[in-house]
Amino acid sequence: MFTFIVMCYQQADVVRLALESVKYQIQRYGQGRTFQLVAADDGSTDASREVIRSWAEENRDLFAKVDLLFRAENVGICRNYVDALRAVEGEQFVKVDGDDLLAPYNVFELTDLLSEYDMVYPAFLKFSGPGELVRGYGVYLEVVLQEFIKGKTLCRAVKLGCPVAGTAIYRKSLLTEEGFDFILQFRTVNDRARFQKLLTGSRDLKTRYVNRPVILYRVSPTSISNFNSPNRLLHNREIGQLCRVQRAEERSPLFRLLLLAQEKSAAFRTSPSPLVRFLRFFSPYFAIMLWLYGTHFFTIRRMERELVDRHWRDCGAHYQKIAEAAGHFPGA
Known about the structure:
Radius of gyration: 19 Å
Number of strands: 8
Strand content: 15-25%
Largest sheet: 4 strands, parallel
Order of helices and strands: EHEHEHEEHEHHEHHEHHHHH
């Protein structure tokens, strides 16, 4: 069984698009497989649950098992996320948030790589509410850098809170109650907490980056990817908290000092002043990025262009197709 997780909170107007992108994957590429749908809603007060329930009933024949995890009240992304992971029955699974979409490419080709690798990191593309793909090459620097963040560098980068492996695909067998307990210390940093625990606890994991988008991320006024949103402010504070937790466990005095510097730099990101926010570029995390960027400059520039130029048209057309299937239209 293969499991699709759809996470939702107050996304009644767009969650159907996420679900339709799951349907697209199943109908286009899923022949010969059986599927589970786990839809986890974190206490939405809009019509999100009704939309999910209606869609699940309309498409019940796509799934061998459907789990609708509807919380009575909002408890935060991390708790909702752990509940969804605990419901996964397939050894292979992918997660998509209710305001995002799965890309038009075969996600099962990526999960099949888990026969050789412990974790696979696909890329992503960003888009605005009306479906306009963000085409600036520099926007995806952190994405393609994952090609070079491996081994000891990967372990150090994850400890420092680098945004590594946000779209990673991995086996269910890597999930543990210890890992769940670690995630549940937080409210918004579910992906970062998950991979910090996984990658710092098992340094010999075999990983691979794939320069092809698996997720289309929506940039909205309330999304974490928006620097001015309230969710982003809380997210940045919790990144600092992640650094404090890691610092308490770190044995190296030098790395404890770096973690302290990274923790303090998280406060810069929450400042309303652009000048203060600029200081975050002097943090240890950005030092790693700068070193990798300088070391692999020409390869990184080529990969950025390949990611955007090769996929933005297909992904833009895919968004329009999914929007029409969901009853949405450009600008809606």
